[in-house]
Specification:
disordered C terminus, elongated, two-stranded antiparallel ribbon, single chain, alpha+beta, five-stranded antiparallel sheet
Length: 229
């Protein structure tokens, strides 16, 4: 009969170490399996948001007009803001998805921007602009706002919302009426409304750094579309 291992501190530590190694290996394997689908899901969400903000849909879901969706070619330019964290990640990036026609003419852009001072935390938006810099559409990519209040930002500022910003140009900074602007804030959620508009203004300001008065975009090279219906 095999001798039972003595219950010593050394044996206990060896057992715990072995368990930790096996658990770490299992987690690494699981991460390897799930990483790609998670990244793909994130990219699919971004691609859908790009499509949503570059097209206008009527009440019946029919596309009335669109920028850079079927006919346009897409190019991605990223503007980094602020300093990277200890891991080298830029959390305050503004990402511009530039849209071009098949002839290489700048048609508009979808721009990702984030404001960190929402009522519940960071508020990230995707804003669509036409070639003149007017707001064509928007989508909320990330929000931590209160349900029924700040979370209403997804519809409040749309074309049929109380605080409609569609068609406006942030060339004149967008502000809520309480701050002497002309945008109606979400009822009971002024902080969220301010964060949202700061994100929109940031998106516009950074996009304009890529736009030249003589040539709408510094680079009109047409590349493969990144959006598919």
């Amino acid at each position: 009969m095999a001798k039972k291992a003595e219950s010593t501190l050394v044996n206990m530590l060896l057992s715990l170490t072995a368990i930790a190694i096996v658990a770490a290996a299992a987690l690494a394997a699981l991460n390897g399996v799930t990483k790609e689908p998670i990244e793909q899901a994130k990219q699919d969400k971004v691609n859908k948001a790009i499509a949503d903000v570059l097209r206008q849909v009527d009440a019946n879901g029919v596309v009335e007009a669109q920028i850079g969706y079927d006919a346009a070619m897409m190019k991605h330019d990223t503007i980094r803001l602020g300093e990277p964290d200890e891991k080298g990640n830029y959390k305050d990036s503004v990402v511009c998805h530039m849209a071009y026609t098949t002839e290489g003419v700048y048609a508009g852009a979808a721009v990702e921007a984030i404001d960190f001072n929402g009522f519940g935390g960071p508020l990230k938006v995707m804003v669509g602009f036409d070639a003149e810099g007017n707001i064509y559409g928007y989508s909320i990519l990330e929000t931590h706002e209160t349900p029924g209040l700040g979370a209403l930002a997804g519809g409040w500022f749309q074309k049929d919302g109380n605080g409609n910003i569609i068609g406006k140009s942030p060339a004149t900074e967008l502000k809520v009426t309480k701050d002497k602007g002309d945008v109606d804030a979400i009822t009971g959620s002024t902080i969220t409304s301010r964060a949202f508009l700061r994100g929109v203004n940031k998106a516009y300001t950074n996009l304009m750094t890529l736009v030249d008065a003589a040539a709408p975009c510094a680079d009109t090279t047409a590349v493969e579309p990144v959006i598919n219906e």
